[in-house]
Amino acid sequence: MQPLTSEGQQVVNALSQRHGFSPDAVTHMLFAVLNGNGSMAQFNHPEFSGSGQWMLGGMLMLSDMFNQGLKGRVDALCGEISGILANQPGLLRQGSFQSQSQSGGGQQSQGAGAFMGDSSLFVPDPTAHWWPRGIGSPSATGSQNNVRYAYFANARRLAVETNGQVWVYDTLDHQIGGFSQQQGMGGSILFSSQYGSVNLSSLPVVSINGEPPASPHPGTSAAPMPDSDFTTAPGADVFSAIERLADLHAKGILTDDEFARKKSELLSRF
After folding, report:
1. Which of 82, 101, 252, 269 is deepest in the core (most CB within 10 A)?
2. How far apart are CA 220 and CA 256, in angstroms?
3. Last residue in a domain, options 24, 52, 86
4. Residue 92 within a domain
5. Is 209 among the domain residues?
């Protein structure tokens, strides 16, 4: 349970006085509504007659089902907590990516985790806010295979954390809806937008671990191309890798120099 700040404790005390429940009961309900993303709650506390459920819009179930007075107080408490949480910027999750894992021509959908951000009510979790400060709250988040994503639609930024590094990309005019990771070919990352499936390496890099990226060599694209994207494991099909490179080159994602360099590297392993 995330600790409350002094401001959060003041809110709990005020709710306690206003609705006639103890601070402990109010704190329990605060986290129950928070875990329900502000619109529902599953709770279990003696002051609420044990276990129960609440949903924004009027649905409320208590163990003491005929206690209308208690129902009214619990509903009022949950409703006010819901309003308070909704006014905390970045607290309630707004969206999450649907990530996909691709292998052998098939795809398997995996629900992506959603981020619950910092708020003045709660002591910030130092491990939760992994992207750089100053780009706002994410529109959607997700994770897959030890890679985490955070998309900031308003700022046109995408943060990707992998292997302990945080890369921030300029999303240009893409409207990103999800990610997939190519298996068996160095784990290159693709994202889906209104333009279809696009390689992440085609986006310009804004920063790496908070620092501006090194200037690209003359004749290369503005977006750095991590070597791991096209590094094949021992025994991998080199010709398949070259075909994939050719496809990216034809789409304009790779420059002539990049294509020639990577092709030469792959052929040298053959």
Report:
1. 82
2. 8
3. 86
4. no
5. yes
Q: How many domains does the chain have?
A: 3
**pTM beyond 0.85, yes or no:** no
Q: From first to last of its 270 residues, what are the pLDDT tens digits of the chain?
A: 668 888 889 999 999 999 999 999 999 999 999 888 889 999 999 999 999 999 998 899 999 999 999 999 999 999 999 999 887 755 555 555 554 444 333 333 333 333 333 346 766 655 567 788 888 877 777 777 778 888 888 899 999 888 788 999 999 998 888 777 765 444 578 888 888 888 888 889 998 888 887 654 333 344 444 444 444 344 445 666 777 777 777 766 677 777 787 777 766 655
* Residue located via tokens 């959908």: 109
Q: Which domain holds residue 236?
A: 232-270
Question: Where do the H-state alpha helices sit in the chain?
Answer: 6-19, 23-35, 68-86, 238-250, 256-268
Residues 203 and 250 in one domain: no
**Residues 203 and 105 both lie in one domain:** yes
Residues β-bridged to residue 165: 162
Q: Which helix (H) or strand (E) holds 166?
A: strand 165-170
Q: 256 near 221, Cβ under 8 Å?
A: no
